[in-house]
Structures are given as C-alpha cells and as structure tokens.
Design brief:
With 395 residues, the chain is of the alpha/beta class. Helices cover 41% and strands 15% of the residues. A 7-stranded parallel sheet has the order 3-2-1-4-5-6-7.
C-alpha cells in the first residue's frame, strides 16, 4: 500500500448493515477512495440482522478493509483505535435502534457523519405518512412497526444524529429531511449514473437483435423482506402465473422476446422453472437496457438506466399488488411519466395497453433524471472523484 495513504490525514469509515459484496465494493468507489484516504468498512449485519446475515453471508467479498462488528464494545474498541486528523463516517445504516446508537458514538468520536444519496427514489405520500398507512390497512404488522419507529425517531434531538456532509444526487434531494441544515453539500449524481459514465461497451454479441427487457425485483422472495420485516405483497404461484402469461401475450403481439434482468440478490438458480425458459442475466442490466426496445417494470430502482437511455417504459401491476403496500409505489412512479400501471392479470385488449407506450416524453424523462439521478450542471466525473476532490480541498 502507498505509504502516503498509510499516513493520510483523512480516514473514511463506511457503516453498512448488509454483507458488503463485490458489487458494493465497486459502487462505493473503494479503489478511488483508497487513492487518497485510509478506508475502513464496518459491517454490522451479524449484530443487527443475524438471520439475514446467515442467509446472505456468501454474497460478501473478502477484503482487508472490512471489519465485522458484533457488539457495542467491539465498535467502541474500533473507534478508539482510529486516530486521524479528519474522520468521516459514511452512513448507510437504517432506523434500527442500535444503528442510532452507532451514529451517536460516531459523533462522540468527532467523526463527520456523511449522508450519501446514492439513488434517490420517488416516494408516494402513503409510503411515508403514518396516518395514511393506518387508514389504508394494507401493511403487515412489522411494516407498521417500522413506520411507527421512523416517525418516533424524528423526535430524537437533531444535534445527536445530525449529518455534517451530504452528497446530493438530484434536485429532490434538497427536500430530504434535514438536508438544508447540513453544512457541507456536495452536488453529484447516483451510483447508477456512475455506471453509465464508466460504461464504454455495448452489447458486443447481442443475444438477439431486438427484445423486451424485464427489470426483475424479486417480488416474492426479496432479501429486504427478511432484513426490514416486510411481508411479500403476493404469493409465488399467483405472481409468476400472471407475469409469464402476460409475457407470452406480449411476445406474440410485438414479435419480440422478453429477457429478464435478474435482481442481483435473487436466487433463481433454486427456482429456474419460474422463468419459463426465458433468457436471463445477472449484473448486466445497463448493457441490456441499452439494446432493449421496451422496458417492463413494477417499481424497480433500476429505472435509472432506461430513463438515462431514454427507453420506453411499461409499468405493470396486478390486483393483489395494487391492494398491497407496493401498490401506491407502482402507481406513483408510473404517474411521474404520465402513465397508468397496466393490470396484467386482467383481460384487457393488448392494443389498449401498449398503444402509446413506445413513445418517449422527453420532458418527463428529463424531469425524472434531474430530480432523482443527476443534479443539473454537475461534473461528469465519477461521483467518488467528486466526493474525494471536495474532501481534499475543503476539509
């Protein structure tokens, strides 16, 4: 390791509560950060979410920068050994009660607590408003508990958990709670935009010349359900029956094949029959979007890629999804593009569903990009270079 980095005056500690994968290693720009700073990754998963860790620990990359934290004492001992002129903690923790304890300790040890808007997500009012959730009666008990805790934690004195630095990746980020009071604001873009900047290759050997792409979000078995205490919004049999039936109809009508861009944590190797022999890929979403004629989705966070690439979008829902906690989310995100989600479990004439879906409204796409993906007028550098430049020059 570079001796200058060993004796750097700045250290970066990344606080996470999910196994840190190679994908995370890349998206958090660890190699870029290590050029200028000493970097540590504190993984609290085994302590905060032991059952989740037991299932997903195999996704973790092996790296000398990762420190597994199992208790309060262990974390305090870690902090005691960190002796740098400037100490920055990148906060990727949730509303877990011990996560708030971690933040308080970070502040006690004179770290600058940093919020990274690594992918701003449009949120419908019913997803954040406690009263709306109570009235809707569409949440599980654990989801209700999580929302209640989120609202209660707003009552905690701000000086105890106030962030010192924020990286803002879209205009909507300025409206996030507490952002206006944060001293250091770094204007940048999302991790997904980084991938677009860094990507210089196209689909060199197209699987097929033209296709429809489905952005899978592992609707039935998503790992976040266990992590955050959510219930799946629909059962496996019902979901995949309607999904594949719609794909069959769409392929016949448009004479294009549907390809799956699988969620990175989905375990379809155990459930291959659900894909009905359709082509599927993991970790190739950006490349696949660039060559797609149409992109299908529910509320996938990977929507950034088709928005940046200006691809037609078709939002899909079902009666069961619409009446669950995810229903308002799908409807709200479709509405941002002046669209209505298609109920693919209903017998609707296909020409009524896709009559205008292949048209691109540039105004809606540009608005979404500026609000949630890239702050207007910012550099085209990778976001972690923008971050590093600011830290070196300002702190």
């Amino acid at each position: 390791m570079n001796e200058d980095i060993l004796h750097s005056r700045v250290c970066i500690v990344i606080l996470v509560e999910s196994p840190f994968s190679q994908r995370d290693f890349d998206r958090f720009g660890i190699e870029i950060l290590k050029r200028n700073f000493k970097v540590f990754i504190c993984d609290f998963t085994e302590w905060l979410h032991p059952e989740f860790y037991r299932i997903h620990e195999k996704t973790e990359t092996s790296n000398e920068e990762i420190f597994h934290i199992h208790s309060k004492n262990e974390f305090q001992n870690f902090l005691y050994r960190i002796n740098y002129e400037v100490k920055i903690a990148i906060d990727q923790l949730s509303s877990h009660r011990n996560a708030f304890w971690v933040r308080k300790k970070i502040k006690e040890y004179s770290f600058r607590l940093t919020q990274i808007q690594n992918g701003l997500i449009p949120t419908s009012p019913s997803e954040t408003d406690l009263v709306s959730h109570i009235k809707s009666k569409i949440f599980s008990f654990n989801e209700f508990k999580k929302i209640l805790l989120r609202n209660l934690f707003k009552l905690i004195p701000k000086e105890n958990i106030k962030h010192d630095i924020v990286v803002i990746s879209g205009k909507s980020g300025l409206q996030s709670p507490g952002v206006q009071e944060i001293e250091h604001k770094i204007y940048s873009h999302s991790f997904d935009y980084d991938l677009v900047i860094n990507s210089k290759r196209e689909l060199s050997e197209p699987i097929i010349k033209d296709y429809i792409l489905f952005l899978d979000e592992d609707m039935v078995h998503h790992s976040d359900y266990l992590h955050d205490g959510f219930k799946p919004p629909i059962e496996e049999e019902e979901y995949y029956y309607h999904l594949n039936r719609f794909f069959d109809t769409l392929e016949k009508e448009l004479k294009l094949k549907v390809i799956w861009a699988l969620h990175p944590r989905a375990e379809y190797d155990k459930r291959k029959h659900l894909l009905k022999n359709r082509l599927s890929f993991v970790g190739e979403t950006l490349r696949l979007v660039q060559n797609a004629k149409l992109v299908l989705l529910h509320s996938s966070t990977s929507i950034s890629f088709p928005v940046i690439s200006r691809k037609p979008l078709l939002f899909m829902t079902m009666k069961k999804l619409d009446s669950s906690w995810i229903g308002p989310r799908i409807r709200y995100r479709a509405g941002l593009f002046d669209k209505e989600a298609c109920f693919i479990d209903q017998q609707i004439p296909l020409n009524l569903v896709i009559s205008d879906v292949l048209e691109i409204n540039e105004e809606h796409y540009k608005h979404y990009e500026e609000q949630f993906i890239k702050f207007p007028g910012t550099s085209m550098k990778p976001s972690w270079e923008i971050f590093s430049d600011y830290i070196r020059e300002t702190l």
